[in-house]
Specification:
- The chain has helices at 11-19, 24-54, 60-73.
- With 74 residues, it is an all-alpha fold.
- The chain has one domain.
- The two termini are 40 Å apart.
Length: 74
């Protein structure tokens, strides 16, 4: 399924792109996918940084023991 996206660009830019045979749909889709991935990665990094800050005082051995206990219960 697809949808229509309208965007206003400089006339010269559009004309040059058309002369060069730029596939607008492909360029826009790739740019959107790239930006979405960048923002997801950025959000993931922020979440991991917050988690690491919260867990900075947690003893590694105690944490590993809790994980092993959870796995054992499954």
């Amino acid at each position: 399924m697809s949808t229509v996206v309208s965007v206003r660009v400089r006339k010269e830019l559009k004309e040059e792109a058309e002369k060069l045979g730029v596939n607008f749909r492909k360029v826009v889709e790739e740019a959107l996918m790239s930006e979405i991935e960048r923002r997801r990665s950025e959000g993931f990094k922020v979440a991991v940084d917050k988690l690491l800050e919260i867990m900075k005082d947690v003893d590694e051995e105690e944490f590993a023991g809790v994980i092993k206990e959870w796995r054992r219960r499954r």
